[in-house]
Every structure is written in structure tokens, then in C-alpha cells.
Design brief:
- By secondary structure, the chain is an all-alpha fold.
- The radius of gyration is 32 Å and the shape is elongated.
- It has helices at residues 3-35, 38-46, 50-64, 67-79, 85-98, 100-106, 117-120, 124-140, 148-173, 180-187, 192-206, 209-223, 228-241, 244-249, 255-285, 297-315, 319-329, 334-338, 356-383, 390-417, 424-460, 466-492, 495-499, 501-525, 530-562, 567-575, 579-591.
Length: 598
């Protein structure tokens, strides 16, 4: 081959690899959107059973088209405390089986195109073009509120681009079969350690075992010069190289999260050491005839699958041993155990951004914890009005800081996610959470205000009059109900219950108005003090704002489910001429009624 031919071949290989990686990314992104947050939910629920964990690891890897992507996700989930290290071991074993799927898919490139039409159409070089056309039509067509069609189209186009990359690499390496220099180079791969090293380095550089095996399949299929003996060590090395991504992602995480990356690489190194040693010893003693046979893409897929399946079968009974190896390499430090636990906002890890649907689901889960914390903090501050306690005050302030952290972390994560192509379902979740977290944070601010009012009453030795106490008890009960109902609505996303929040909010507005009016009348009669009046006004304002934020949260649940974002228009619509609103308003008005002072 001339220098010109070599340069052009290298350019085609690099370009083909770029198309391959991009197509794989597009295809896995479409599959991930269709799966939505189900992957994250499944990881949390099914990892207690080893069989389901194995299937789960296999299935998610097929969806993500990458075992390293799943491992990075596991690193993030362990780092934020959602999963334990022990829960990830069998999932990782399953991931190594799932990664063989792409290898078998690429075998279709070897289908003979000189045969009948139906057989030629089985070659991706042809049917991927049909996929590209169908996928492009689906992506450009109107979704009519259903993004699944676009996601399927994205998968088909991604597959077509991936296969086009394979075609480019095939055309680039085909002349190598007549190159003497290439033949001489291959002779060096008779050394199994060199084969393992090359497989590890190449895969580590491109960070995709599927891509590196695709390159090997292309070379084998189109040059006809690679033997089983050469390919086996390279394939084992490729399995080790795919762990580089997880190891890189484990920088800057806690020790438990680092152990996930260690377990992944330990699995592949142990498997390589055992099977390569056994293979080489037997080959030297009894001699394997097939080691000199020319390997094709199907043979590579078989070797890859057999290695991963047998390694999984071998190490599955010793899954606890893999965890112990990780603990030996990275033992826990006593001083770390004594440190206080990190705040809840660490439950969002930046590594989850690599799988947007999982990150959105985690943000939603974090917002639910934030909702509970906001409700408990306001109720805690209200209790201070009748039972003042400094410990409770400190807890209110501490919780308010946590709510601020929640808002910052969830908000910044969702802003980053919104720059990505989210599915319609994930976009709705993101919009709802973004709108709600601001109201949850403001509830914490009003809890601080109420706690300060309670301190003012306690320090000044102030007290409500008997009638004012009765009125405040009625209002406080209404506030407690709207807080409880709003939390339940946000957790259940029940539209009917959400519509019942606004009528209660209106009743609370009237209650605060009536209590203020009654207080003025009591001032005129001399049965209440001016000092207490200032405190009462502050408390009533905070109560009213608490109910307003509860209404906002309920409205966000209703609006995002219908794809609407005009809050004022919605509120005007439900307040005027709405029978359900009027019936609930009357019900709450009868339940929380205050007599006017005569």
C-alpha cells in the first residue's frame, strides 16, 4: 500500500469510528427515553434478588448499549446513597452479559450480499438504509403529544448511522488483506499478553468495548488474516479496557462509590487471568486446532459471549468475594465513619447526568423528600407558638438551610438536564419539579418567620386573648390540613385532590381577614394589646403566604399534567362558575368558621 492509501484508510477508519460512536449514542438515547425513569426505579426495587439483578444489569446494558454507562450510573447512585455497594455487584455481572448484544448485532454485517434478495436485505448495509428513512419520517412527523414515535425514530436513525460507520471501516480495512506489512504486524499478536494489552489500551482510549470489538470484527471479516488465537486475548483485553470509563467517573466520589469501579475491573481481570491461563496451558499441552483457524465476526461474538457468560457463572457464587476484594483495596477509614452524614442534597450526583431519564427521576424523588421536609418544618414552627423550645427553633433553622440546599441542587441539575433532549414525559416532570421547589423553599422561609414570632411572644411574655386563641386554633387547623393535603397531592399527583387545595386556600384568606377585623374590634374594646397585634399580623401574613404556596404547588401538579403554564388563567377559571370549586369552598367554610366580634 502507498502512503496515500494508508492515510486515506486511516481517515476512513477514524470517520467510521466517529459515525459508529455517534450512532450508538443516538440509538441508546432513544431507547433510554422510551424506558424513562423505569431503569432507576427497577435498580432500587429489584436489586435485592440476585436473579432479577442479573437480568436487570443485562437489560439496562442492552438499552444503554454500554456496560461502562451502567457502571457510571451505579457509581452515581452509590455516591448519593440511593444504593449500597453490595446491591451493585450482580448488576455489574449482568452488564457484562448485556454488552455482548451489540457484538451479535454487528455480525449481520457478514451476511452474504451475493445471494437472493431476501438474504441481502438481512445485511445492515441495506436494511439500515430503510431504517434511516422510516426513522427520519417518524422524527419529522407531528408527535400529537406522544414523543414515543420520535424516540423510536431516533433509535432507527441511530442504528443506521452506527451501521454506516461499520461500512466505512469495512471499506477502509479491506485492502489490508493483501498487505505484507499488515501480515507481519499480526504475527506479533501471537503473544497473548500483547493481545490483552492492545485490547485494553484501544478500548480504554475510545471508551467503548462495543466499538473496539466492532473494529476487530471488521478487520476479521474483511482481511481474513486474524486467527482465534490472536482474537481471544484481544477480546479479553477489551473487556478490561471498558472499565476505564467507570474508574475515571469514580474520581471525586466517596469510598463506597469508588468500590463500584473496582468491582467492575476486578471481574474482568479475574476472568481474563483465569481463562487466559487455562486456555494457554491447554493449548500448549494438548493443542487447540481451532486456535489457528481464521476467525470471522460470528466467531468473535461467540468468544466474547462465552467469556462473559462463563466468567459470570464462575464468579456469581463469589459475588460477596468481589465486594471483599474492593474492601481490601479500598478499606473504610474509622474517622470517616465518625463524620456526620452528608446533607440530603448529596442524593443528586452529577454522574447521573449521563443518563438524563435517571437524573430526572432522582430529581423528582429528591423534590418529594423536600416536600416532606418543608411540611414538617412549617408544622414544627407552628408548634412553637404554643410550646416554645430552643431545640425546636434550631431544628427549624437547620431544616431551612437544607431546603435552600435542596432548591439549589435540584434546580441546577434540572437546568443542566433541560439543555439535553428530554422525552416529553421527563420534560413534564422537570417542569413540575422546577416550579414546586421554589414554593417548598419559600415555605421554609415562612417557617423561620413564624419561629421568630414565637420567640417574640415567648421573650415578651405575651399571650393571645381567649377569643383570639380560639380563632387562631381554627386557622392553625386549616393551615395544618392544607399542608398535609398539599404534600399528599404532590406525592400522589392526584388531579382531583389537587383541585381541592384552592378552595381551602380561599377559606384561609377569608379566615385571616376575619381574624384581623376581630382583632381591631378587640383593640377598640381594650381586650387585646397593641404589642400582640403586631405579632398577630405577622403570623397571619405568614399563614396566608403558606396557603398561597400550597395553592401554587397544587396548581403546578394540575397544569404540568395538562401541558398548561398559565396559572392566573387557570385560577380564574376554577374560581368563577365552577361547581366543584364552589361546593368545596362551602364545605371548608362550614368546617372553619369564625364568629365576628360584635
Amino acid at each position: 500500500m502507498e502512503i496515500k492509501d494508508i492515510v486515506l484508510a486511516v481517515i476512513m477508519v477514524i470517520g467510521g469510528l466517529a459515525f459508529f460512536l455517534y450512532g450508538m449514542n443516538v440509538m441508546s438515547s432513544g431507547l433510554e427515553k422510551m424506558a424513562g425513569g423505569k431503569m432507576e426505579q427497577a435498580l432500587k426495587k429489584l436489586t435485592s434478588n440476585w436473579f432479577f439483578s442479573l437480568l436487570l444489569g443485562t437489560g439496562i446494558t442492552i438499552v444503554l448499549q454500554s456496560s461502562s454507562s451502567l457502571t457510571v450510573m451505579l457509581v452515581g447512585l452509590v455516591n448519593c446513597g440511593v444504593m449500597e455497594v453490595s446491591q451493585t455487584v450482580v448488576v455489574i455481572l449482568g452488564a457484562n452479559i448485556g454488552t455482548t448484544f451489540t457484538t451479535w448485532l454487528l455480525c449481520l454485517m457478514g451476511v452474504d450480499t451475493d445471494g437472493p434478495l431476501w438474504l441481502s436485505l438481512l445485511n445492515p448495509e441495506y436494511f439500515s438504509l430503510i431504517f434511516a428513512l422510516v426513522g427520519a419520517i417518524m422524527m419529522m412527523s407531528k408527535s400529537d403529544g406522544n414523543s414515543r414515535k420520535k424516540d423510536i425514530g431516533s433509535c432507527l436513525v441511530g442504528f443506521a448511522v452506527l451501521m454506516y460507520g461499520m461500512v466505512l471501516m469495512k471499506d477502509a480495512v479491506e485492502p489490508l488483506k493483501d498487505s505484507e506489512q499488515f501480515q507481519q504486524l499480526l504475527l506479533k499478536f501471537d503473544n497473548p499478553l500483547l493481545g490483552v494489552l492492545v485490547g485494553t489500551v484501544v478500548t480504554g482510549i475510545i471508551q467503548s468495548s462495543a466499538a473496539s470489538i466492532g473494529i476487530l470484527q471488521t478487520l476479521a471479516e474483511n482481511t481474513g488474516t486474524i486467527t482465534f488465537g490472536m482474537a481471544i486475548p484481544i477480546i479479553m483485553g477489551q473487556n478490561i479496557g471498558t472499565c476505564v470509563t467507570a474508574l475515571i467517573s469514580s474520581f471525586g466520589v466517596n469510598r463506597n462509590a469508588k468500590k463500584v469501579g473496582i468491582i467492575h475491573i476486578a471481574f474482568n481481570i479475574i476472568g481474563t487471568v483465569i481463562f487466559l491461563t487455562v486456555y494457554e496451558i491447554l493449548d500448549m499441552t494438548i493443542g487447540f486446532a481451532f486456535s489457528k483457524w481464521i476467525i470471522n465476526s460470528v466467531g468473535i461474538a461467540i468468544v466474547h459471549t462465552v467469556f462473559n457468560v462463563l466468567t459470570t457463572i464462575l464468579l456469581l457464587p463469589f459475588s460477596k468475594g468481589l465486594e471483599k476484594i474492593a474492601n481490601l483495596i479500598l478499606p473504610d477509614k474509622e474517622e470517616e465513619e465518625e463524620k456526620p452524614k452528608k446533607p440530603q442534597h448529596t442524593l443528586l450526583d452529577k454522574r447521573l447526568l449521563t443518563t438524563p431519564s435517571v437524573a430526572v427521576a432522582e430529581c423528582d424523588e429528591a423534590s418529594r423528600r423536600m416536600a416532606l421536609l418543608a411540611k414538617e418544618t412549617v408544622l414544627m414552627s407552628i408548634s412553637l407558638l404554643t410550646d416554645y423550645d430552643e431545640k425546636t427553633v434550631k431544628k427549624v433553622y437547620k431544616n431551612e438551610d437544607k431546603l435552600d440546599n435542596y432548591e439549589d441542587r435540584i434546580g441546577s441539575t434540572l437546568v443542566q438536564l433541560n439543555t439535553k433532549a428530554l422525552s416529553e414525559h421527563d420534560s413534564q416532570i422537570s417542569s413540575r419539579v422546577l416550579r414546586a421547589i421554589g414554593d417548598f423553599e419559600r415555605l421554609g422561609d415562612h417557617a423561620i418567620n413564624i419561629a421568630q414570632s414565637a420567640k417574640e411572644i415567648y421573650d415578651g411574655g405575651l399571650s393571645f386573648s381567649e377569643n383570639a386563641q380560639k380563632e387562631m386554633h381554627i386557622l392553625t387547623t386549616a393551615i395544618q390540613e392544607i399542608l398535609e393535603n398539599t404534600y399528599n397531592v404532590y406525592i400522589s399527583l392526584n388531579q382531583t385532590d389537587a383541585a381541592n387545595i384552592e378552595p381551602l386556600e380561599q377559606v384561609i384568606d377569608y379566615l385571616t381577614r376575619d381574624i384581623k377585623a376581630n382583632h381591631v374590634k378587640r383593640l377598640q374594646k381594650g381586650t387585646c394589646t397593641i404589642e400582640m397585634g403586631f405579632v398577630l399580623a405577622d403570623i397571619l401574613n405568614d399563614y396566608e403566604r403558606v396557603s398561597d404556596h400550597c395553592s401554587n404547588i397544587a396548581v403546578s401538579v394540575i397544569e404540568t399534567s395538562h401541558g398548561m403554564f398559565e396559572t392566573h388563567d387557570y385560577l380564574n377559571k376554577v374560581k368563577f362558575g365552577n361547581k366543584n370549586f364552589n361546593d368545596n369552598f362551602e364545605r371548608f367554610q362550614q368546617k372553619y368558621h369564625i364568629q365576628s366580634v360584635i
